Amino acid sequence: MTDFIATRARFDLPEGIVYLDGNSLGPLPRAAADRVAQTVTGEWGGQLITAWNRAGWMDQPARLGDRIAGLIGAAPGTVVTGDTLSLKVTQCLAAALQLRPGRKVVLSDSGNFPSDLYMAQGLLSALGQGHELRIVDPENVAQHIGEDVAALMLTEVDYRTGRKHDMAALTDKAHAAGALAIWDLAHSAGALPVDLTGARADFAAGCTYKFLNGGPGAPAFVYVAPQHQHVEPLLSGWLGHEAPFAFDPDYRPGPGIARMRVGTPPVLQMAALDAALDIFDEVDMQVLRARSMELSERLIAAVESRCPEVTLASPRDANARGSQVSFRHPEGYAVMQALISDGVIGDFRAPDILRFGITPLYIGEDEIDRAAETLARILDSRAWDRPEFKRRAAVT
Ligand SMILES: *Cc1c(COP(=O)(O)O)cnc(C)c1O
Fold first, then answer.
1. Cα separation of 372 and 72, whole Å?
2. Where in the chain is the domain with CATH 3.40.640.10?
3. For strand 220-224 and strand 203-207, is the pairing parallel, antiparallel, or unpaired?
4. Ligand 1 pocket: which of 207, 209, 235 to mutate (most atoms within 8 A of CB)
């Protein structure tokens, strides 16, 4: 059922560009532009405040949560959208700590995205209960899961190298030690098959502007396993209240996953995301994964045969990678700027990583070949060695 020619036609990509950065910001789905325009003029413009009811704006967080649930092996009623990933991870961590009051260690790894670690540091210090954030090497996580660990907090796919953790095995290990497992799916949702139910994950969160193509500023999502949905939420906002429009001065958490909502949903962003998710209705995630592996192998083979100056930073085994391929080069930043100026868009992650997102929905063999050829040409000619390619922009 998955037709990658058809999915390619659903995106509005600039002519002549090879876009290998959908792992950071997915491109514009054609339908999203129309859907947002309709929401702006037809709903906001035409219906004004009545659109909260008439156009179903207030139901978007749960409705889109259920759509995302279908992509990550979660049951209906276990996922809700809103806020940002940094906040959703924090809500998960606070909930897990509440469920393991006697334990003081949060275990994470040095491959985790800094914001997850920063938010954990902020939460633990605000709680003031003597919790410790223990950060170990990604390869050593399993051996550090001990009886003192309250929560394992990991990102499944490493944002720099693409290394992929074994979610089911680590979750099992955490449970065997009496700990809970929180998974960040930033580089998993929409990129590879995820089975939160099968892995028995306790909590998960992710963003929708990367592989799900929801657009810049698109809302995050949060998953809470059914058996944990009774927790008291850290962020007790009015839209997570049992009866927001009762305007009761006291907080009472809403039913189930609804209590993970905080405040007013970003309606225009949700409209864009809704249109972006339509594309996944036509996609079998197993087929997508197989295609992503094929394209990744093709890129690695082409780059390794033509570009002796770069080294593979991703695991060589396709099963141990997410849907990106990374290479190291000491002048990685300048090399990436030169690539971008030649129409091949990837990105750079400090200190020396050239990162390429492999997104079969709109990338095929031709794009992979052109990327490898362009990289080889830039390295052979040292075209990157120019001052304008070395000036760092705010976003890399
Ligand atoms: C992209 C990313 C984030 C970003 O968080 P925001 O709050 O959406 O800015 C957080 N964690 C991981 C693992 C990411 O890859």
1. 32
2. 33-280
3. antiparallel
4. 207
What size, in residues, is the chain? 396
3 state SS of 220: strand
pLDDT in tens, 78-132: 999 999 999 999 999 999 999 999 999 999 999 999 999 999 999 999 999 999 9
Cβ–ligand 1 contact at 155 (below 6 Å): yes
Class of domain 284-390: alpha beta
Active site (annotated) includes residue 247: no
- 1: pLDDT strictly greater than 80: no
Alpha-carbon gap, residue 42 to 60, rounded angstroms = 17
Residue whose C-alpha is closest to residue 375's, from 316, 293, 299: 299
Fold of the CATH domain 33-280 = Aspartate Aminotransferase; domain 2 (3.40.640)
What are the residue ranges of CATH 3.90.1150.10 in the chain? 284-390
Give yes or no for a contact between 69 and 223, defined as CB atoms under 8 angstroms apart.
Answer: yes
Tracing tokens 């093709």 back to the chain, one arrives at 298
